[in-house]
Structure formats: structure tokens, C-alpha cells
């Protein structure tokens, strides 16, 4: 049976990734922060849970050999990286280094999968983003992710570790309680007039968390060497359309305004070219409208 370590398994992406690997027949160990009892983490396919900071010493204490390590732990917010750049660096870069060093010294045949972000490429305009397009990050979050990616490349080149990097675009889905969709649901539920940042013409490429997890597993089974793939739907959607769909599923006629202010570090356009990912036999299954409808249903169950 394949043994898989998922860091940050308490988080939104991490727990879905753990469940994906468990469903495929793996033995799944989780590590990270979060108070979790066995009956709770077992529901997400986790066989063992280790509540601890991701360090080399903590990995030694687990005392297992893994076939795959998936690093879902770390920073996940541009805003947080501006407010706490040092801590963001520790979460993104130091934890990645600890895992790579653990593989080098203790688990040489283990594959390393790193969920990253197109934030490493910065602003590239209103066109599909290819994995090899070079650019400059525009936020501490993007710079730290880029450094972590370069560490991955270094360890592959120097120590022959198989590394796969998945650059995720806008992941969403039932269970997510932060970011734009959560904020929009809260505002639309409570008011007839709502205001959002930006112009509404900014675009994002939305990918449901179930599709995000399935690509990561498929990628991990096929990666040899060093490879980077995008994970998105391949569809560019304006923010104002997303807000309109959420309003529709709330069955509310509301007035929506945009204040024209773009948050520091936020890109104007994000749109993935997913041809490389699809060459692995993967394709996104959840269309945005159905995914948003299910997300609103999830939100409503929390406020009955």
C-alpha cells in the first residue's frame, strides 16, 4: 500500500487531498496545525494525525518512509504576506526546505509534490498563462512561493529528487470559509446593497477543490524528474459574473457596486493554460455554475 504524507491536512485543500489519496487506496498520514480527533480526521481519509509545526525534527518523529509527500501546509494569503512577511516566509520557504532535506537524508525514493500559485509569475495580462512564462512576483506571497519553487528545482538537480509543482488558480468548494466567495455570500445574505473591491472586470480561473485534488494525485503517480503544471478550469470569468451567479442562487435582487480599489498584490487577470495538466489524462469535471450553486447551498446550511 502506498504511504502518503499530507502536510497542512487540516486545511481546506489538505483535507480534500488526503481524502483523494485515501479513496485511491493509500495509507495517509497528516501533519500540521489543528485540533482534530480521530473520528473527525478519519472522515477525510487520514489514518494518522500529527499536530505539530512542519520541521525536520517533527518529520523524524513520525518515523515512516513515504512514497509521496504533498506539501499543502504553508501560507495561503497575499494579504497575510504583507502583514506578516517574516512568518509568511517561514511558512512557505522554511517548511519546504525542511521537507526536501528530510527526503534527501531519510526518504530518498519519495516524490515531493508542491502546490504553488501563479502568483510566482505576477501580472501577465489577459491571456492564458503558460507554465514557462517568466515574470516578476508582485507580492511577498508570490516571491516566497517562487523561492520555494526554486528550492524544489535545486533539490531535484542536486539530489535527483522527483518533484512536481502544481500551480493552483482560484480553488473553491464546499467547506471553504474565507476569500471572495465566502465574503460574497455573507454580504449578499445580510444586505440589499453590497460593495466589493476592484472594478468587477478582473478575471479569475476557478477550479473546484475536488478537481484540484484529483489532478494532484494523478500528477503524483506520473511525475518523473521535475515538472510544473497549472491547475485551473482553463476558463476566464469576470468577478462581477461570479457575484451575479451567487446572488441568483440566493434568489435575491440586490444592488452590487465595485469601489474601483485594487488590493495591493492582487492581479487583474488570472487565466490558466491547462494543456499540460490535461496531457496526464486529467480534466476538470465541475463546471463553475454548478460549483457555485453547491457552494451557496453549503453556506445556507450553516445559517439555518
UniProtKB/TrEMBL annotation:
InterPro entries: Epimerase_deHydtase, NAD(P)-bd_dom_sf. It comes from the Bacteria. Gene3D superfamilies: NAD(P)-binding Rossmann-like Domain (3.40.50.720), UDP-galactose 4-epimerase, domain 1 (3.90.25.10). Pfam families: Epimerase. Residues 4-232 form the NAD-dependent epimerase/dehydratase domain. PANTHER family: DTDP-D-GLUCOSE 4,6-DEHYDRATASE-RELATED. Belongs to the NAD(P)-dependent epimerase/dehydratase family. This is NAD-dependent epimerase/dehydratase family protein. It comes from Pedobacter helvus.
Amino acid at each position: 500500500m502506498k504511504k502518503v504524507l499530507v502536510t497542512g491536512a487540516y486545511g481546506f485543500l489538505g483535507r480534500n487531498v488526503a481524502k483523494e489519496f485515501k479513496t485511491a487506496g493509500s495509507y495517509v498520514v497528516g501533519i500540521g496545525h489543528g485540533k482534530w480527533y480521530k473520528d473527525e480526521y478519519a472522515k477525510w481519509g487520514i489514518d494518522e494525525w500529527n499536530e505539530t509545526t512542519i520541521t525536520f525534527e517533527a518529520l523524524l518523529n513520525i518515523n515512516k518512509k513515504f512514497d509521496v509527500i504533498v506539501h499543502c501546509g504553508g501560507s495561503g494569503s497575499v494579504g497575510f504576506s504583507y502583514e506578516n512577511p517574516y512568518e509568511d516566509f517561514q511558512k512557505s520557504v522554511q517548511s519546504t526546505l525542511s521537507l526536501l532535506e528530510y527526503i534527501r537524508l531519510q526518504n530518498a525514493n519519495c516524490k515531493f509534490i508542491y502546490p504553488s500559485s501563479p502568483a510566482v509569475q505576477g501580472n501577465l495580462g489577459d491571456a492564458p498563462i503558460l507554465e514557462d512564462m517568466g515574470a516578476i512576483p508582485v507580492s511577498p506571497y508570490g516571491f516566497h512561493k517562487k523561492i520555494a519553487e526554486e528550492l524544489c528545482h535545486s533539490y531535484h538537480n542536486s539530489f535527483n529528487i522527483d518533484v512536481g509543482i502544481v500551480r493552483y488558480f482560484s480553488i473553491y468548494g464546499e467547506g471553504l470559509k474565507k476569500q471572495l466567495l465566502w465574503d460574497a455570500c455573507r454580504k449578499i445574505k445580510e444586505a440589499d446593497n453590497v460593495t466589493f473591491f476592484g472594478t468587477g472586470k478582473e478575471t479569475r480561473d476557478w477550479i473546484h477543490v475536488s478537481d484540484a485534488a484529483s489532478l494532484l494525485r494523478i500528477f503524483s503517480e506520473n511525475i518523473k524528474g521535475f515538472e510544473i503544471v497549472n491547475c485551473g478550469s482553463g476558463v476566464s470569468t469576470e468577478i462581477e459574473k461570479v457575484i451575479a451567479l451567487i446572488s441568483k442562487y440566493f434568489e435575491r435582487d440586490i444592488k452590487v457596486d465595485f469601489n474601483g480599489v485594487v488590493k495591493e498584490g492582487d492581479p487583474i487577470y488570472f487565466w490558466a493554460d491547462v494543456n499540460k495538466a490535461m496531457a496526464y489524462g486529467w480534466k476538470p469535471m465541475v463546471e463553475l455554475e454548478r460549483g457555485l450553486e453547491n457552494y451557496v447551498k453549503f453556506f445556507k446550511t450553516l445559517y439555518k
